[in-house]
């Protein structure tokens, strides 16, 4: 089991950040995901594993000027 923004999500062996986003149906413009204390950028989502028991935070893209 992992925690995604205070919500419990089932974990499975081999889960990556990209898999997790698909599992939870996230379609927002997420530029960075924090897995425990590590920040992961979009290009690394498919290759970054999510360990069992992880705390994951979705960090949305913010634009301004």
Give a brief rundown of this model.
With 65 residues, the protein is mainly beta. It has one helix and five strands, in the order ββαβββ. It has a single domain, classed as Beta-grasp domain (Ubiquitin-like (UB roll)), CATH 3.10.20.30.
Key terms:
five-stranded mixed β-sheet, single chain, mainly beta, Ubiquitin-like (UB roll), 65 residues, 34% strand
Outline the fold blueprint.
Layout: E1 2-4, E2 7-9, H1 17-23, E3 30-35, E4 38-41, E5 55-60
Parallel strand pairs: 1-5
Antiparallel strand pairs: 1-2, 3-4, 3-5
Structure write-up:
The protein is mainly beta. It has a single domain, classed as Ubiquitin-like (UB roll) (Roll). Helices cover about 10% and strands about 35% of the residues. It contains 1 helix and 5 strands; from the N terminus they run ββαβββ. It has one helix spanning about 15-25; strands spanning about 1-5, 5-10, 30-35, 40, 55-60. Strands 2-1-5-3-4 form a 5-stranded mixed sheet, with no helix packed on it. The termini are far apart. The model has no long low-confidence stretch (mean pLDDT about 95).
